[in-house]
Amino acid sequence: MEPIVRAVDVGFGNTKFITGGSRPSDFRCQSFPSRAYPSPRDPAKALGSEGRKTYAIPIGGLFYEVGPDVMLAADAFRATEIHGDYIETPQYLALARGALRMMRLETIDLLVVGLPVAQFAARKTQLEKLMTGRHDLGGGKSVTVHKALAMAQPHGALIDYATQHERVEAMEQELSLVIDPGSRTFDWLVARGMKLAHKQSFSVDRGVSNILQLIADDISQEIGQPYTNFEAIDVALRSGKGMTVFQRSYNPARLKPMVDIIAKDAVAAMMRRIGGAYNIQHVILVGGGAFLFRKAVKQAFSSHQILEVKEPMFANVRGYQIAGQNYLASLPGGWTRPKTTGGEGA
């Protein structure tokens, strides 16, 4: 029996995961917003929840509603997002289990997950322990994860880039920089070949959410009350179109100079950490926020070609899947599924 490998990347903005596919060219990727709405009762049984694609994940006596249609469950008082404590929050576990629920599996031999670069060394073992064992997915569903492997998030993107371009061996002695602007953090990773240079790799809290908050604050001043529809701002920025607020037009593009300052601050923090750029052969830009930071990256690396991948939001999770498959294939004698497993990862 072929071992089952799956990958999940719980980001501050979106949770990405692999539902199937044996080769990088046919990986099936999905995502949903990284939002979890707690309730004392199972919202799947509540009036009005029929028809929306969400799942109620039981954790610690509460039910956390997650999934593609989670915004239909939103209210201002129960809105909860994962924050700096990250993997220690019930929201993180709910999001990860929501992804597992959507995979429709009862057993996973190896689950590959990710961490921001700044948290990787300190929390790798903790996250692997959390994700190993039996997980209650709600609705009478569960999955058993026999082994978990944690990676630094941009490391997945590096593997994905090298695989897409068939350059794994060619890059073995070359220095690469992977830049991953996410929702909350701006991550970067320096590596020789596929091996990380930990002292030059790090994260700062300068992500897409800072830009969305900046624009939301400006809208709030204009309308005279708090504005919190970050999703509408995000759509406007990605489409390049204006917004309608209280039947009036608002164009986020007018704050572009301020957006550029946030992006430059993040890139400057990275440059201080990595030192000179002359030794770097590959500058790879990935992540859902790449479009907002592209200009600042190009200015910092004016002598380099900025490399990108297809569907950059899924670069990390595709790389996790490749790494997981390679890991099991490299084991002497192959992978043997244990007869027993540890306790529930909660």
UniProtKB/TrEMBL annotation:
Coiled coil: none
Domain called Actin-like protein N-terminal: residue spans: 7-156
Actin homologue MreB-like C-terminal domain segment(s): 178-298
This protein's name: PRTRC system protein D
Organism encoding this protein: Sphaerotilus microaerophilus
Pfam families for this protein: ALP_N, MreB-like_C
InterPro entries according to UniProt: ALP_N, ATPase_NBD, MreB-like_C, PRTRC_protein-D
